[in-house]
Amino acid sequence: MKKKDKIRFDKLKQIGCIACAKYGKVSEPVIHHIRKHTGLSVRPSHDDTIPLCPNHHNMGNNSIHLNKSGFESLFGSEKQLLDETNFKIKQLDEEQLFYDGKGSY
């Protein structure tokens, strides 16, 4: 994993679950890779990632992996959530609100 990917993953973890945020909740996320035109053994780019809590990732009845259509009807498509996530990262970067792990924001 490249340094830029680690930085992105850290920011995703700080944002929290993008689906829970729609309900005004904050949940610790796992990183979901959006698979489009990739096989099961081929991981997509780390740039195509969104933060989802375990319930919205692969454990809940309306999780992206267990019920994609139900998930997308509630929260939007993976592409829409990726756009929202990237917008949030840009916004927080501009406002310098990310914690860098070294004691500063």
Helices and strands, with pairings:
Blueprint (H helix, E strand, L loop, with lengths): L2 H13 L2 H4 L8 E4 L15 E4 L1 H6 L8 H8 L2 H17 L11
Antiparallel strand pairs: 1-2
Quick tags:
105 residues, mainly alpha, two-stranded antiparallel ribbon, 46% helix, 8% strand, globular
Tell the overall outline: globular
Number of strands: 2
Give the SSE string.
Answer: HHEEHHH
Stretches where pLDDT is under 50 for at least 5 consecutive residues are none
β-strand amount: 5-15%
Structural class: mainly alpha
Report on the biggest sheet.
Answer: 2 strands, antiparallel
- Average pLDDT confidence is 89
Compute the CA-based radius of gyration.
14 Å
Number of helices, where a helix is a run of at least 4 consecutive DSSP H or I residues: 5
Helix content: 40-55%
Give me a quick take on this structure.
With 105 residues, the protein is mainly α.
Tell me what you see in this structure.
The protein has 105 residues and is mainly alpha-helical. It has five helices and two strands. Strands 1-2 form a two-stranded antiparallel sheet. It is globular and about 35 Å long. 19% of the residues are buried. The model has no long low-confidence stretch (mean pLDDT 89).
